[in-house]
Amino acid sequence: MSETIETTVNGRAVTLRAEDPEMPLLYALRGELGLTGLHFGCGLAQCGACTVQIDGEAVRSCQFPAVQARGRKLVTLEGLGTPERPHPVQTAFIEMQAVQCGYCLPGMIMTSAALLARNPQPTEAQIREELAGVICRCGTQPRVIAAVLRAARG
Amino acid sequence: MDAMLDRRSILKAGGALTVAFAVGLRPRDAAAWTEKPVATDEVAAFLSIDARGGVTVHVGKVDLGTGVRTGFMQIAAEELDVPMARISVVEGDTALTPDQGPTYGSLSIQNGGVQLRAACATARRELIRLAAERLGAEPAALRVEEGMVIGPGGRVGYAELVGGRALALKVDANAPIKPPEARRIVGRAVPRVDIPDKVFGRFRYVYDVRREGMLHGRTVFPPALGATVEAVDEASVQGIPGVVKVVREGSYVGVVAETEWAAIKAARALRVRWSAWAGLPDQARLWEHVRATPVAQVQVTSERGNPAEVIRGAARQLAASYDWPIHSHASMGPSCAVAEFQGDRLTVWTASQATHNLRKQLGLMLGMPIERIRCIYLEGSGCYGRNGHEDAAADAALLARAVGRPVRLQWMRQDEHAWDPKGPPHLVDLRAGLDAQGNVVGWESEAFIPKGAGGNVDLLAAELAGLPRENQIHPGNIIHNLAVPYAFPAVKTTCHRLETTPFRPSWIRTPGRMQNTYANEAFIDECAAAAGADPIAYRLRHLPADETRGREVLERVARLANWQTRPSPQPDRSGEILRGRGVSYCKYELVRTYVAGIAEVEVNRRTGVIRVTRFWCAHDCGQMINPDGVKAQVEGNIVHTLSRTFKEELTFSRSAVTSVDWSTYQVITMPEVPEIVVELIDRPTERPWGAGEPAAAIVPSAVSNAIFDATGVRLRSVPFTPARMRAAIQGA
Lengths: 154, 732
Known about the structure:
The structure holds two protein chains of two kinds. Chain A starts with a strand and ends with a helix. Helices cover 35% and strands 16% of the residues of chain A. In chain A, helix 3 crosses helix 6 (141-153). The longest helix of chain A has 14 residues, at 105-118. Chain A contains six helices and five strands. A five-stranded mixed β-sheet of chain A has the order 2-1-5-3-4, with helices on both faces. Chain B is α+β, with helices and mostly antiparallel strands. Helix content of chain B is 30%, strand content 22%. Chain B has 21 helices and 24 strands. In chain B, the strands form six sheets. Chain B has a seven-stranded mixed β-sheet with strand order 9-10-7-17-14-15-16, sandwiched between helices. Chain B has a five-stranded mixed β-sheet with strand order 12-20-19-18-13. Chain B has a four-stranded mixed β-sheet with strand order 21-22-23-24. In chain B, helix 4 packs parallel to helix 5, helix 11 packs across helix 12 and helix 15 packs parallel to helix 20. The model of chain B is unreliable at 1-31 (pLDDT under 50). The interface between A and B is large, with 65 and 66 residues.
């Protein structure tokens, strides 16, 4: 019943295993590849903690079947940028200290990076709307908004 | 070192933390567990200096996502004169860190940090003494730079003086600390050491622990709170590849599998016959249920004069009741732990805010001496009180014991919302009497809240499995701040401590202190309105004359928000959108952090939708170790409590919780977060107090007062939903 999936994760060709057609991508990325830059929050695509980018679009990996990742380009928080080559959104989150526990960061950063890729100069209202479905319980939202605006200003 | 780091240093700062993590995760052999001193009066319990001059700080208080780890590093770096980059931190490891009590109550810096500071100051004095002997100099002639003691005739490093050997001396609480003018690291907005790793997806949370041979577990929760197992059909999961075992102990049921997905599928597929149970009260009649609950104890928390008599004879009488609903912690990450037995010893990796207590609870449940149990803290998703992490640790331990292999256990979303311990319902009745000038001459309040304090919350698995537990309820210290910070001539505040409460209670951020402040600060606003007085002026005239710091936060927040002095409500209430502002004030537990806040709201009369547009806060927690860390906590308190005030409410049937995800238990969203303006008052010569909770206390009352100012209508039941607002406006 399990099947293998050839795909690209963070620029690297990898083979994932889906235990069944329903298995969410989250478990392949965390379980098999040991990627921890995406978190299990709800399994219902309600909170955003598991967000990755698939072909440049922010996608919730907890509800995305692993089998549909075949032949796609996947990017996780680890692959968006590195300390040596940070993505502007990551740099801005550090500069604004827009983090408490950090569990929401895959949702906040991956969604914001995808937004900036298609709309490099969003308004504050557009940023708020884009992140409306990303939950943060620590109350970092004011800093997150400031960080995304800063990243957009470049 | 220069605290104002450049970007490159900030990016690199994560390195220190990686070291700490490796120490925390390294499975020491059992014999080594108790070699290091952990008694809170030993310097070596807090500090070690290695042969290369690296300093390891051991703290029993843990970083719950607040950034306090960085604060501890600043304290140690400052007192020891060692660069931040040379310090690593070990937190909440029962084998390695002192028991400084649970990480709650806004006490990490106030108590935990001050203990660490005393240990560092003691160590520094000793190191200088040793250096003086070595260099043949007077201690007063020596100075320290980057861990190097420098004298007129030579220098010697910490590593050379004690490197690799324990600092065998007692903590002297009076060892001299650096005076404010000499501080270079404490008091500055040093960037948090954990943020780069978190932003790059490299941070290791408890969820990320992997052990050799590790299996995955899920708990199968009862469909009703008090249901018991009648039968488990193990054959129902036999067809799922990777299932290792179905575990049953009493009414605790769990599954263990080779992969996480297989465990999830098995937990969903397992057929269990449960008994019927419907012992919850009717939610629509919750407050009648609370009032009818037997009282275990009556606690008078303040008493002066005879307020009942004074109120009876007063020119004007007021009375009101305020209620606060049941809340879930609703943590972002469902609770998780990894448990591993090696021989007769158990290691648990956990995000518990109280690893030393968890160890005792696990020992009780499992019938093991605590010396054979080690709990190691790793960060989970943000924790604002005793959530489900301890319970997950117990689940993992039961499953690991049953299969003889390490088990990683995580709850599912609906488990977290349904089964984490709850912030209990909180009800306060108030009465006041005003004299002819509108001054409060008598004040009486009665809170109806569960009994218990800050003790251990029983482990759910122990309850389900029928294993030993303390069998007590502990909602936190929820009686504080019912006593008022005002100099009313006659006062009596009483807590009716109830025998039971519908759900297993625990503390959620600012427990009781927030609910009591909400009732007090909204009710004093009612008094001010009755007196036709400006709400800030009214508070100021009732503050004790010597309360200068309280006066200052109120005056500062008034300036910050450009407060217009006038009574509430605002006079023009004709349009569809009504605007108002409200103030609130709190002296935390009447002995520490001062905070005042102003909320600005817009209320749509037709839809009842309330929007908080801006929130201002003035905050005085004494000395600040890291002002940006304090600011982040204040912001977090405001956003989190706005969420609780406007949106959050546990819903339940007669059998079970029905608000089990983010659509049925809604929380604040990005578009709803107001602009927040924080003014911090720094007092480097004072002692440091907490900032993790106090600002939450003022939020609901500031909002209730702003709504009244806008509409002339008072909301007294949280959450302040559009339906309640519409009903209140229509009923007015």
